[in-house]
Design a protein that fits this description.
Elements lengths: L9 H12 L3 H13 L6 E5 L4 H12 L3 E5 L8 H8 L4 E2 L7 H12 L5 E4 L3 H6 L12 E4 L2 H13 L6 E3 L4 H24 L7 E5 L3 H12 L3 E5 L3 H9 L3 E2 L2 H4 L5 E4 L9 H4 L7 E4 L9 H7 E8 L2 E6 L4 E5 L5 H4 L6 H20 L8 E3 L2 H14 L9 H8 L5
Parallel strand pairs: 1-2, 1-4, 2-3, 4-5, 5-6, 6-15, 7-8, 7-10, 8-9, 10-11, 11-14
Antiparallel strand pairs: 12-13, 13-14
Length: 415
């Protein structure tokens, strides 16, 4: 039985799901195909992804493909209660509510795994963590799964290096059709949607400090510049730092950027991108936002130690008053600002990412017993299929190599 906040919210959630469904043509097509073949019939599939409308539609497609679907969120502040209510009425078991306490959040994860899943779709690695630890008993049926995020893939690769990964996982985050579009364009747009919706302030004319210049950082920086901001990038990777310079951005250390920024966005996938010594040098009124998976990139304990007063200034904006009177504003409690303060990535972007998730899940099923307990890349054929489906949905045709061109590319003589 589902564990949700309020079943009466379902009509609002259903409207949201129907809206995104209208803009996700790839999943529409896959749903039409899979509802006929039902390749997941009788299998338990556990899903831990930010529980909003696009995720709900993915769960519905999995259910249409025959799966018994058990869904929960991957962040306590990204769950939308109306979506959870609507999804629970569509044949999916749902265990999640907004602003769950740490204990509640873990309990919801365990409930979603209590079916002893055959397949999992994870976002950030919390399912994998539980299935390798305190609830390893629930992994008895597992064939494998997929991981959505950079953070989750990092955790998986650490297990792979240690030799402790107990089942195969596909790194969906590393697929071209994921990081080139979801991480760059999806994060770029949704982060600024969340910040602007939460603060009702301009971006134009402000100095924006972007911590981390991976694909997510590239997207956030590009959108900030497009909105009229001066953009500074901080990095630990010299190659990425040079790339930011070549892209026309300013690059410096966080120590040097701290007194310059009006808005700080962290996207490092690591902890302590901004710490006490940085807070001590910041301007009055700065905005601090995190777009990395966990709420450890902006060091909240340091912020609390330096403050003499903490106030809720707006919904999802907490003001920390320093001893000298400066106020530093933390958005969404340092959680993912694009989801805790917004609706996440646009539907058209998640259409591609969730198509990858769905097809990669089927790949794990089709190759059950053949895959080793390691991290796999998304097969190129799946990446190419999703890209092709996206182009067709956009009404775009591209060229194809002739046999002569293919032979030329394969020839060592170049003739």
């Amino acid at each position: 039985m589902s564990i949700i906040r309020d079943a009466a919210l379902a009509p609002d959630g259903k409207r949201k799901i129907e809206w995104v469904r209208s803009y996700m043509p790839i999943l529409n097509q896959l749903e039409r195909e899979l509802i006929q073949s039902r390749p997941l019939k009788g299998l338990n599939v556990s899903v831990s992804v930010h529980l909003e409308a696009k995720t709900a539609y993915l769960c519905q497609v999995l259910h249409a493909a025959g799966a018994n679907v058990f869904a929960t969120g991957s962040n306590p502040y990204s769950t939308q209660d109306d979506i959870a209510a609507a999804l629970a009425q569509s044949g999916v078991e749902v265990f999640a509510w907004y602003a769950a306490t740490p204990d509640e959040y873990e309990a919801h994860l365990i409930e979603a795994l209590s079916c002893a899943p055959h397949l999992i779709i994870d976002d950030g690695g919390d399912f994998v963590h539980l299935l390798h630890g305190k609830r390893s008993d629930l992994s008895r049926n597992i064939l494998g799964g997929c991981e959505e995020t950079t953070t989750g893939v990092l955790r998986l690769r650490a297990r792979e290096r240690e030799g402790t990964l107990a089942f195969p996982m596909v790194a969906v985050n590393d697929a071209y059709c994921k990081y080139l579009f979801d991480n760059r364009y999806g994060t770029g747009q949704s982060v600024w949607d969340g910040i602007m919706r939460t603060t009702n302030l301009t971006v134009a004319g402000k100095t924006v400090v972007v911590a981390g210049y991976g694909w997510c950082g590239r997207g956030v920086a590009a959108k900030a510049r497009g909105l009229g901001a001066r953009v500074i990038v901080t990095e630990v990777d010299p190659v990425r730092a040079i790339e930011a310079v070549m892209d026309g951005l300013e690059v410096c250390s966080m120590d040097d950027a701290a007194p310059l920024g009006d808005v700080f966005v962290t996207l490092t996938g690591c902890r302590d991108a901004i710490v006490g010594r940085h807070f001590a040098r910041m301007k009055d009124g700065v905005l601090l936002a995190n777009a990395g998976h966990f709420d450890v990139e902006v060091n909240k304990p340091d912020l609390e130690k330096l403050s003499i007063e903490i106030n809720e200034r707006r919904k999802n904006v907490r003001g920390y008053t320093m001893k000298d009177g400066r106020v530093l504003n933390l958005l969404a409690d340092g959680r993912l600002v694009n989801l805790a303060s917004g609706d996440g990535h646009p539907a058209e972007i998640m259409d591609m990412s969730f198509a990858l998730q769905l097809l990669s899940t089927l790949y794990v099923l089709e190759n059950a017993g053949k895959l080793e307990n390691r991290v796999y890349k998304v097969p190129e054929s799946i990446d190419a299929r999703v890209a092709d489906m996206k182009l067709k949905a956009l009404g775009i045709r591209i060229d194809a190599l002739t046999q002569k061109q293919q032979a030329y590319l394969l020839s060592s003589e170049g003739e």
